[in-house]
Every structure is written in structure tokens, then in C-alpha cells.
Amino acid sequence: MTEDKHIKEQKIVDQLSGTFQNLTGKVKRERRVEVSVEKKLIPSVLSYVKDQLTFTHMSHMSCVDWLEDEHFELVYILWSPELKVQLLVKTLINRENPVIENVDMIWGQLNTYQREIREMYGIQFTGLEGREEFVLEDWDEMPPMRRDFDTAEYIKDVFFERPGRDGAKDVREVIATRSGEEIPELAKKYSRD
Amino acid sequence: MPNDKKSQKIVDIIQNAARKHSLFVLAYGTGCGAIEIPPTMTSRYDAERFGIRGMATPRQADVLLVTGYLATKTLKRVIRAYEQMQDPKYVIGFGSCTINGGMYWDSYNTIKLLDKYIPVDVYINGCMPRPEAVIEGFIELQGLIKDGKANGATKYKENIDWYRANQKKVIKNWNMPDYNW
Amino acid sequence: MDNSIWISILGFLATITLAFVVGVFYGGLVRKVTARIQNRVGPPFYQNFFDIVKLYSKTTAINHGWMQHLGPAFAITASVTSLMFIPILNGQGDMMWFENLNFKGDLIFLLYMMVFGSLGMALGAGQTGNPYSAIGVSRGLSQMVGYEIPWVLALVAIMMQAETTSITGLIDYQNANDTWMMFESPLAFIAGLLAMLGMFHYAPFDVPFAPAELASGPASEFGGKYLALMMTSGAIMAFVKLVLFVDIFMGGASNLVMLLVKTFLLYMVPVLYGVVSPRYRTEQSIRYFWGWPTAIGVLGVLYVVFIR
């Protein structure tokens, strides 16, 4: 449907899926391309897009915790100054044993992002250098950005609370009832009430 | 004669008057509140009128201004700076975050109640308090000093075990030197 | 007991009180002037008195070793000793109260005495182990090497001209010839004035203290009573420098009002220059002093040797 409209974006997807196996790509909209690959392909895909497809700028690296599907999704966000296209390279990692190849030799700044993700999600990057402790200090609980980390319980244990917040309503509930949605069972498990 | 109560009272009045009119603020900012300090100190609001002045080291400062939320990591530094300050010393809690956690009430890494960890003499509420409110808070503190009621440091020394227990609950790896005040 | 000893002691106390009050008062005026230039109201002119009283009433529980405790003592000793050798008022009038040790010391002695305080402070600050103190001390001593050269050249020029090293002798020379040294040998005066900019450590020569860069410089670890001692010493030292400058270049002062007018006008030179200036780096500061001020100082000496 978008083939005639987004020619250069489609060209990137074609080039990538022609080069790599098991790579699914799609054009999200103008100047926004998204590809999903297996985790063992990540180093070769990243160096390929950097060297061959002029995606020289590493904008950001992020992680999503898909608790229900039991995996983490790593997202590498790249930008090509020549093509003016943003490329999202996504990969899924097993939640039980989250290990992936370190790629900070391709972009130096990935070292920082990977260390942050290692600390916040507990994902291990093989061969990643730098201190284990990044932003948190003396943290011995579950990595705090994982969705099964119970923040409310932790706060109750560690910090003091000034009375007066008891009447506050759960925001999700209010929003859900206002827009007529239903809160999924899983989310209810982590609700404050 | 030199040690009787009357002469001590006169000395106290002189000392409190001098302390009231000369507040050296430790130039240390946490969170977003630090951005309200430059306008408070410079031409527009000019806190120097009241003898309030920035000082770069805790050794020379009287007032510790905790400007905003404190991560547990920052709390460690704040306690260390506070204990290095010389008596008499005062703490001003600045913004909602120091009072009840503010918008960080459900953060896993931010303390909610500042006065459980270090003694607070004056709270300034608001998110963020404007420079007028900051100056108002300082005037409040000056009033307390004049009446001899700003005794947070004494409270801290007397209840040091309770404060230490609270601090160590948050700061798990306690590797700080003990200061002898 | 001999009556004159009591008068000397009272005069000594009166001199210290005068120097302290005037120095602190000038410090407050400087803050006021700075504030007015920055379009602020500024603290009241007596603000520095409050600061010093408050600092004296603070506890001081910092211990880094005995040299740290001696540092501020050295500073105040140097200030008071220098003060004793400076003629506050000249010749006639109510000079009796401020006589002190005027006739026993000369300019060369004072040159050493005024440096003594800085060196004592440097030793004291060095023992605190604070890195900011160490950087501040090294910067301060480097800058001292810078401004001492034009300062000594200016003094050499006027000492050669008056053919005396005594300060009272210099004042007498100016009174006898009915002129001021700043008109007699203007080049030496200019060199001395430029060196004075560095001596007062106002911007652009506030290299050793460098607020926002070095915490409080050498004084970083000194709080409470020690800081009060250092502020007292600084106030007295500012007074000493101003009076010395007035004595040797502006013919001294015959009464207190004249003294205040002359010193205040002189003090406004570094202050007003400082308020509108940013800060030099250390090597820029030294290069500045070794440039034009030193050249003018050399010219001043040559002027005295060959022309007069």
C-alpha cells in the first residue's frame, strides 16, 4: 500500500531482507523503518547498516519488558543523515536467560546505553566493559525497571510515607473507566489496591 | 559573674542577632530546585539584602538548602555535607519532594520524607517554590533563629541513633567517616 | 610604672580597633558598591560585622594537624605586626595614639612582613589536604611572584628618589618638598597602582580564590572561628596596604578624615576595576604583571636614576 509513496524506505527494507535471512521489515510511515531480527544477527545487521546503508548516527538504545510474552525486546534506534530515515532494529531475548552480544565496538556510545540496560533490566552483554554499578548505588534487589519488580511493596518496606495519600485513587482505574476500557488481569496484579 | 544566666542571655541575644542577619548557604543543589536559586541570589530578587550569601564549602556554610528530590545516592552526599558543617547549622527543605516525595512518591530510589534522615528547620512548599517563597522561607528561619528555636542540629545530635538507623535503612553500604562535630 | 608604656599599649589597641573597624566597614562598602553596580539593593554596609560576629560564635571542630591551626594565627600576626610599623597619621596633630613602632621599621622590612601572612596561610591551607586549597595556594604564590616585581620596582624608585627607606622619612620628604610622590615620580606610582590591583585579589586577579572554580580557594577547609580570624586579618591587611600606599605616594594624612577620604578613593580603584572584569587565568595574570607594570617600573627606576 505504501510502496509507491515511500520508495526510499521500501528500498532499505528490500535491501536488508535480501541480505539477511529471517529478517522481517516494514515501513511504518514516512522516514520511519522498522526491522526485526534474531539476536545472533544483531552485530552483523548493525555493522551492515552503518557501513553500507549510511545509518551512521546511533540515536538511542532502549529495552521493553514484555512480561506477558516472557521476553525482552531490545530496540536500536539509528538515523541516516543522508537518507533522512530513522531505522529501528528490534530483537527479542529470552526473559529467563537474557544474554546478548555486546556491540559497543560499532558505536562507542552504546557502552553507556548497554550499561544502563544491564543495570535496569539485568540483561547481560557478553564482553561489555565498565563498572557493574552505573546509576544505582548498592542495589541488591531485582533490577528495578523489570515489570515484575513490585515498586509499591519496595517503597512500603524501605521508605517512610507521610499519611494523606490514602484517598488517592489508582490513576489507571480512573482512566480505564472514563474511556470504557477494561484493565487486563495482569495489570490488576500490580495494581496498588 | 561571667557565667551567670543574665550575662549568658545577653551573649545569646547578640549571637542570635548576628546569626540571624548572616546566613551562608551551601551552594549545593539537588533536583530541579537548584534552578530557582540563581534568580533568588541575583539582581531580580537579591537575597543578599538579608545577609544570605552563597558559600562554596560545607565548612563555611550555615544553611543546607535541599532543593528538591533526593535520590538515595544523593542522600549519602547530603548527609556527609551536613555532618561536615559547623554548628550552629540549619536545614531548609525546599519543594514538595522533600515534604512527602512530591511527584516521586512512587519512585524506588527517592526518599520521601527528608526529616526522617536529617533534621529540617523550615520547609518551603511548592513545586517549585518561586523566589519570593524562598525568601519568605529564609525570613521564617531568621525568626526561628532570633527566638533561639532553630535547634535542628541539637536534635540531630541528641537523636543520632534514630537518625543513623533510618539512614542505614536506605544506604545499605555505609562507608562514611564519623565526624566529631 | 612609666606612664608612656600605658599610652603605647592604649595606642596599640586603638590602632588595631581603628584598622579593624575601617577594614570591615570598607569590606561592607565594597559589597554595597558591587551590588549597586549590578543593579541590586545589596546588603547593608555593616553586613560584614554581622558575618564576623557570627563566625566567631560558631564552633570549630575541624582538625587536620597543628599547622592548620597555626595558619590563621600566622595571618593575623602578620597583619597586626605590619600595622604596627605603618604610620597611620603623619607628623603633627594627634599622632601620639598611633605612633606604635613607626620609626623602627622600614619599607624593606615591611615587604617581608606583608608576605609572611600569605606564607603562613599557605602552610596552614597546605596541611588541610583539600585539593582546592592546594591549587589555590599554588595559584596564589604564583600570582605573588607576578605582582611583587612591579611593586618592588616602584618602591625602589621612590626610595632612591627620597634617599631613604624609612616610611616616616618618605612622608617627611614629601611634606618638606610640599608635593606628593605620585607627582614626583609618576611612573613608579603607576607601576605600584597596577601591582596593587593584584595585591587586593579582586577580579580579574582573584585567581587564588576563584569562586565557582576552586570552592573558596586556600580557605576551603577553614570554617567558624578560623574563617573569622582570616576575615579579620584580611580586613586589617586591606587597611595596612591602603595606608601604606597613601603614606608613600600620597603624602600621608594629617587627620583621620583625610586618611579615610584618601584610602577610600584609592580602594575604589581595584574595586571598580574588579566589578566590571572577568577573571584571568593564572598564567595570564602573571604575564600581565611581568608585562607593562614591570616595564613601567623599570622606566620609573631609570627616570629617577638619570633624570632627577
Secondary-structure map with pairings?
The complex is a heterotrimer of chains A (about 190), B (about 180) and C (about 300).
Chain A lengths: L6 H13 L4 E6 L2 E6 L4 H10 L5 E10 L4 E10 L4 E10 L4 E3 L8 H12 L2 E3 L24 H8 L12 H8 L6 H5 L4
Parallel strand pairs in A: 2-5, 6-7
Antiparallel strand pairs in A: 1-2, 3-4, 4-5
Chain B lengths: L4 H17 L1 E4 L10 H5 L10 E4 L7 E5 L4 H13 L5 E5 L1 H5 L21 E3 L6 H16 L5 H7 L1 H11 L11
Parallel strand pairs in B: 1-2, 3-4, 4-5
Helix pairs in contact in B: 1-5
Chain C lengths: L2 H35 L9 H10 L9 H19 L22 H21 L3 H32 L4 H11 L3 H4 L1 H14 L24 H26 L6 H20 L6 H9 L1 H16 L1
Helix pairs in contact in C: 1-9, 1-10, 2-9, 3-4, 3-9, 4-5, 5-8, 5-11, 5-12, 8-12, 9-10
Briefly characterize the structure:
With 181 residues, chain B is of the alpha/beta class.
From the 3D coordinates, which CATH architecture of the largest domain in chain A would you assign? 2-Layer Sandwich
**CATH H-level name of the largest domain in chain A... which superfamily?**
NADH:ubiquinone oxidoreductase Nqo5 subunit
CATH fold annotation of the largest domain in chain A:
Beta Polymerase, domain 2
Count of folded domains of chain A: 2
Strand content of chain A: 15-25%
What count of domains describes the coordinates of chain B?
Answer: 1
Count of alpha/pi helices of chain B? 7
Instruction: Output the strand order for the largest sheet of chain A.
Output: 1-2-5-4-3
What structural class do helix, strand and pairing data of chain B support?
Answer: alpha/beta
* Quaternary structure: heterotrimer
Unreliable stretches of chain B (pLDDT < 50, length at least 5) are none
